[in-house]
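Subject: for your reference before the review

Hello V.,

The reviewers asked for a structural picture of the protein, and I figured it would be easier to keep everything in one thread rather than splitting it across files. Below is the amino acid sequence we used in the manuscript, unchanged from the supplementary table.
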Amino acid sequence: MNTLITAASSAQAHRLKSELIHEAIILGDYRDLPDVLLKSGKLIKLPNPGSISYTHEMLTLCLEKEIGIIYPLRDEEQKQLVNATRLFAEYGIKIKAEVG
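And here is what came back from the structure prediction:
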């Protein structure tokens, strides 16, 4: 299973990535990211938490990318995902909203 860290454009995401002892970490962001990094597969584009269907878009992404743990680093992502913790848990996906 993969681990997703959001807010890939932030230093906090890269710091967390270096702290985790996990082989399969994916960094993603809904904010603009350089096309070079997206095309290389180093980062992925995430759904916007302002979207009405955000929770379902994230769940679909997690199932497609085999993500088992999400570290949502931005407040707007945390609020949405914490409210959907039970839904994600039904698919074996953990929301780790409290970091550090």
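For the response letter, the relevant points are probably these. The chain has one domain: 2-95. The mean pLDDT is 90.

Happy to draft the paragraph if you're swamped.

O.
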